[in-house]
Specification:
34% of the residues lie in helices and 18% in strands. By secondary structure, the protein is α/β, with parallel strands linked by helices. Among the domains are: 103 residues, Flavocytochrome C3, Chain A, domain 1; 100 residues, Fumarate reductase/succinate dehydrogenase flavoprotein-like, C-terminal domain (Methane Monooxygenase Hydroxylase, Chain G, domain 1, Up-down Bundle), CATH 1.20.58. The structure holds flavin-adenine dinucleotide and succinic acid (SIN). The site of flavin-adenine dinucleotide has 43 residues, from helix 1, helix 2, helix 5, strand 7 and helix 11.
Length: 537
Amino acid sequence: MAISCDFLVIGSGIAGLSFALEASKFADVVLVTKRGADEANTKYAQGGIAAVLDHGDTFEAHIADTLTAGAGLCHERVVDLCVKDGPGRIRALQEIGARFDKSHQPGEGHADLDLHLEGGHSARRVAHAGDMTGREVERALLEAVLGSPRVRVLEDHMAIDLITLEKYGGPEVCAGAYVLDAAGGKVSTVLARATVLATGGAGKVYLYTTNPDVATGDGVAMAYRKGAEIANMEFYQFHPTCLYHPQAKNFLISEALRGEGAILRNTDGHAFMRSHHPQADLAPRDIVARAIDFEMKKSGADCVWLDITDKKPAFVRERFPGIHSECLKYGIDITHQPIPVVPAAHYMCGGISTDLEGRTTIPGLWAIGECAATGLHGANRLASNSLLEGAVFAHRAAEALRGIDRTKALPEVPDWDASAAASSDEAVVISQNWDELRRLMWNYVGIVRSTRRLKRAARRIAMLQEEILEYYWNYFVTRDLLELRNIATVAQLIVDGAMSRRESRGLHFTIDYPEHDDRLARDTVVKRGVAPHLRGT
Ligand code: FAD
Ligand code: SIN
C-alpha cells in the first residue's frame, strides 16, 4: 500500500523540521526519520547560530568572514541572502518557543541576546542556548511539528532509494521514495509531489567524528544513485577539538571556548597557534585542525590540550555547563585542568547541488541543510553558519513550493520487490566492511592527503563496493546494510572530488599540490556516468 502526500520530507533536524512546519501551513507533509525524531546532528550543536544581531556588527562583516573562510569558492549571492535572512530566522525560532540566552547588557548598543564569538568571526554574532543550542532548537521545532495536524511523523523509518519516473519522454522526475520500517522490516512506497532531502551529513564515513550514528550521508548517496549532481565533496570539515578520551564517543568541545580565551597547547605546554596564523586560536577551522595535526605528528603525541583554566571557574561553569559536566564524567575538571582534544570529522561542506531555493538537478527533488551544496560554505564552512543555512533554505524551499499544483493525481508506482532476497546469517560482513571503510578514509583521505594515498583509497573503496552490492542484492535490506552502502558511496564521492582537485584549498590539503591555484577556483562536480571534473572545464 502506498502512502501519498504533498511533500515527503526525509530527516528531522533543523532543515527537515523547519521545512515541514512551514509547508504544513498550506499542504500535507509526511516526514520520515530513521531513528527517534530528535536524533540528528542538530541536537548536538553546541556553539549556536550565526547572525548579525549586535548593533556594532554588520552584514558586510558577516559576509566577508564567510567568504574568507570559504577560500574563494563561496557563491556570493547565496552568502548575501543567508546572512541577510539570519536575524529573521532567529526571530522565527524564538516565535515557536526556542529560548536563546539573553544578553547581560542589553540596550547599550548591544543585542538583546548574548552572543558567542567563534573562530573566523570578526564580531560576536553567535546566538546560543548555553552550550547546548542544538538541543533547544530541536526541542522547539519538534514540539511545533508534532503539534501540527498536517504533518505525519514516521520514526524509525529509513528512506532506501528515491523513486524516479520518466515523464512524457523528458528527464526523470522524483515521485517519492521507498522507505524501510526498521521495526517491522516492511518497505513502503511513499508518493509525493515534491521530495525534500534533509538527511544531514556523513561524519560516520570517518573513523573519528563528532557526529551521531545517523550521519551516514544517505541523502547524497540516494541522490547520486538517481543521477543528481553532487558538488565539492572533497571539502570535509574536521573540527579541531573533539574530546580525546578512551571512553568518550564523539564529544565535541565547542569552538566557543576559544572564543572566550581558551588556548591550544602542545604536550610541552607551548601555545602553538600563534606560530601558525595571525588569528592564533581563532583562525579558521581548517587552519587550526591542520596545525593540531602538524603538532601531533611532530611530537608523536596522541592529542593536544585546550586550556581555559585562566578563566574564573564560576564563569566557565555558567557559560559551558554541558561541556563542564560531560568532561567531569571522565575525571576532567575543565576549570582546573586542560582538556585533551583531537580533530575529528565534523561537517560535509559539499553535497547535492541546489539552486537558490533548494531545487536539485532532478525535477521534484529538493535538498536542504547539511546534505545540500548551496554555495554558502565554499571550501570551508564558517563556524555556526550551518544551522543558519538549514533554517534559511528550509524557509526558501517552502516558499518556493507554496504555489505547487496539488490537484493532479500521483503516479502509479510498482511496490518494492524483495522476492529474490533471503535473510542474512552473516552480519559480520557488514561490520567488517564498515570498520575497514572508516579506517581507510581516516588514514588515506583525512586532514592531509596525497595522490598516492587517494589512489589507494579509490581502489579499496571500489572493491568494498562490489562486495556490498553483491550482499545488497542477495539479502533482505536492513538499516546497517543500507547505511554501509551509503557511506561507501559517500567515500567514493569524497575521493572523486579530492582526485579532481589538483591544488590545496580550504579543507582540501594535498602534499602533491600544496598551493592554491586561482585558475581552479571552481566547484568540483560529480554525477553518475560522468567523470568527476571542475565545473566549466
Ligand atoms: P541533521 O540535523 O543531521 O538531521 C538529519 C536527519 O535526517 C536526522 O533526523 C536523521 O536521522 C535523518 N536521516 C538521515 N538519513 C535518513 C534516511 N535515509 N531516512 C530517514 N531519515 C534519515 N552547526 C552550527 O551552525 N552551529 C553549531 O554550534 C554546531 N555545532 C555542532 C556540534 C556537533 C557535535 C555537530 C555534530 C554538528 C554541529 N554543527 C553546528 C553542525 C550542525 O549541527 C549540522 O550541520 C546541522 O544540524 C544539520 O542539520 P540538518 O537538518 O541538515 O541535518
Ligand atoms: C562548535 O560549537 O564549535 C561547533 C560550531 C559549528 O560547528 O558550527
